[in-house]
């Protein structure tokens, strides 16, 4: 790989899933810890890198990648030998992209509205239509197989396993059987479990 990978990370945040993905990919990388309790995410040094002041972010050569779904897509394609992203031409490539995009465009907006007890926008303007339809669309897919792509484990599962883990833990998503079984399956993978445990230890 021509350039070194740098990872900007705060333990026990959304970037924990990216840490787990990097471990699953067996990637070599340098971690730059952003102490959000100290406000480092809003300091000029970090804002010069990511004006949104968010983690995760990665820097690979001259390429800065922010936004969770973009990072998952970029990293999984960057390490093709790990086979965590169906390649272009593979029939599973479309569904893989769909479920990663669904996370950012439907799931998170719905969960934020629900957690804030905020009335959603009119259905025609709401990015997720309505919460119940969003959730049933997801659970129906989870019931079809062990992974989002059926029998094929992918980077999409790292994203969703982590996300559903914390959203069910905080009561933002109901602990339906399809969801809890999926979370246990994904988060129980040795590499992911080790990454999450080390991240929790680092947050202390």
Written account of the structure:
The structure is a single chain. The protein has helices at residues 15-24, 44-49, 68-78, 93-115, 131-142, 155-169, 177-187, 190-203, and strands at 5-9, 29-33, 57-60, 63-66. By secondary structure, the protein is an alpha+beta fold. A 4-stranded mixed sheet has the order 2-1-3-4, with helices on one face. The mean pLDDT is 94. The chain folds into 2 domains: 5-83 and 192-203, 3-Layer(aba) Sandwich (Glutaredoxin), CATH 3.40.30.10; 93-189, Glutathione S-transferase Yfyf (Class Pi), Chain A, domain 2 (Up-down Bundle), CATH 1.20.1050.10. It is globular and about 40 Å long. The two termini are 33 Å apart. Strand 3 and strand 4 form a beta hairpin. The protein is built from 8 helices and 4 strands, in the order βαβαββαααααα.
List descriptors.
204 residues; alpha+beta; Glutaredoxin; Glutathione S-transferase Yfyf (Class Pi), Chain A, domain 2; 2 domains; 4-stranded mixed sheet; 4 strands; 9% strand; Glutathione-S-Trfase_C_sf
Global mean pLDDT? 94
Give the percentage of residues in beta strands.
5-15%
Biggest sheet strand order reads: 2-1-3-4
In CATH's first tier, which class of the largest domain applies? Mainly Alpha
Shape: globular
Number of strands: 4
CATH fold annotation of the largest domain: Glutathione S-transferase Yfyf (Class Pi), Chain A, domain 2
Supply the number of structural domains.
2
Indicate the low-confidence ranges by residue numbers. none
Q: What's the N-to-C terminus distance?
A: 33 Å
Number of helices: 8
Q: What does the largest sheet look like? A: 4 strands, mixed
Helix content: 40-55%
Oligomer: single chain
């Amino acid at each position: 790989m021509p350039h070194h990978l740098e990872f900007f990370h705060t333990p026990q945040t959304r970037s924990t899933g990216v840490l787990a993905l990097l471990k699953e990919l067996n990637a070599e990388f340098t971690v730059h810890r952003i102490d959000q309790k100290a406000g480092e995410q809003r300091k000029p040094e970090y804002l010069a890198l990511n004006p949104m002041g968010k983690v995760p972010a990665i820097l690979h050569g001259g390429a800065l990648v922010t936004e969770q779904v973009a990072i998952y897509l970029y990293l999984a394609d960057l390490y093709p030998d790990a086979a965590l992203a169906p390649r272009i031409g593979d029939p599973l490539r479309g569904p893989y992209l769909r479920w990663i995009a669904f996370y950012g465009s439907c799931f998170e907006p719905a969960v934020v509205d629900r957690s804030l007890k905020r009335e959603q926008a009119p259905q025609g303007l709401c990015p997720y239509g309505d919460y119940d339809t969003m959730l049933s669309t997801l659970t129906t897919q989870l019931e079809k197989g062990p992974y989002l792509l059926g029998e094929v484990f992918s980077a999409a599962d790292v994203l969703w396993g982590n996300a559903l883990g914390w959203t069910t833990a905080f009561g933002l998503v109901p602990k339906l059987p399809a969801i809890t079984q999926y979370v246990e399956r994904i988060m129980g993978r040795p590499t992911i479990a080790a990454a999450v445990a080390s991240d929790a230890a680092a947050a202390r």
